[in-house]
Every structure is written in C-alpha cells, then in structure tokens.
Design brief:
By secondary structure, this protein is an alpha+beta fold. Helix content is 19%, strand content 18%. The chain has 2 helices and 4 strands.
C-alpha cells in the first residue's frame, strides 16, 4: 500500500492531539521511543510518521482521533496489527 502524504497542518494536528507531545518539540511515542517534531518522515534516531490507530486495512480512517505520532521503527513493528491501541 502506498504511504499517505499528510499536509503540514495535519501533521501538527496529529502531534498536538497526543497529550504527551502537545506543545512540545519532542516526546515519547506509544512504545517509549523519543521522537522530535522536526524529524517527521526521517528514518533517523528521532524520526516519526503518522500511524493509524485502527489500520486502514481494518476500516480505519484519517480522522484525527485515529491518528497518532509514532517513531518510524515503532510503526514498522506495529504494522497493520489491530491489537495495538492509542495510549490513554
């Protein structure tokens, strides 16, 4: 599946919708990996992507409530598994 491209506004909305990231330049993702706001879509130590909490493959959508910032390695590990959920 082709990776979706998100606008900068959507990226900021996703970042700020996470209570651990809101208003910060760096935070920890669901797996405890440190991510930095300005490392979006980079495959480096602090790189992150936008993850679908409920994967598209299982009927999830692009609503802000279904999106979360996730370290790119965490996103690879999670894949399309429906058994992971957003941090409460």
């Amino acid at each position: 599946m082709e990776r979706k491209k998100f606008t900068i506004n959507k990226r900021l909305d996703v970042w700020n919708n996470d209570p651990n990231c809101k208003g910060r330049k760096n935070c920890k993702d669901l797996f405890g990996r440190e991510i930095k706001l300005d490392h979006y879509n980079l495959k480096d130590q602090y790189g992150w992507t936008i993850d679908h909490v409920k994967p598209l493959a299982f009927g999830g959508g692009d609503e802000i409530e279904n999106l979360q910032p996730l370290h790119w390695k965490s996103n690879l590990e999670k894949g399309d598994s429906p058994h992971f959920c957003k941090r409460l």
